[in-house]
Amino acid sequence: MRIEAYTQVQQLYSTKKTTKAHKQAANGISDQLQISRFGKDIQTAKAAVAASSDVRENLIAPLKESIANGTYQVSGESFAEKLLQQYEEKSNQ
Questions:
Q1: Residue 12 confidence class, pLDDT cut points 50, 70, 90
Q2: How does pLDDT run across 46-71, given as a tens digit for each residue?
Q3: Residue 38 three-state SS
Q4: CA atoms of 22 and 29, how far apart (whole Å)
Q5: End-to-end CA gap in the chain
Q6: C-alpha to C-alpha distances, 39 to 16, 27, 42, 45, 50, nearest whole angstrom
Q7: Eight-state DSSP code of residue 30
């Protein structure tokens, strides 16, 4: 086997690859992305959620005030009911 022949074959293949790449670039073919109306609606909804506050101050402000004043009272019965509900939900999963 002659090494020169291998080198010549390798050069042929490498030149063909580069010419193909240049032809595609010359054609001006490019990728395009189209977003459906539903996709645009989802983007709008995500932007609205991102812009909104995580905390509803109109509900939290009275609780903060009563905690700060020391007047916040928790009913033992309601706490126990909610605790049992959480336990039942976790055990059913």
A1: low
A2: 999 888 888 888 899 999 999 999 99
A3: helix
A4: 12
A5: 70
A6: 41, 31, 5, 10, 16
A7: -
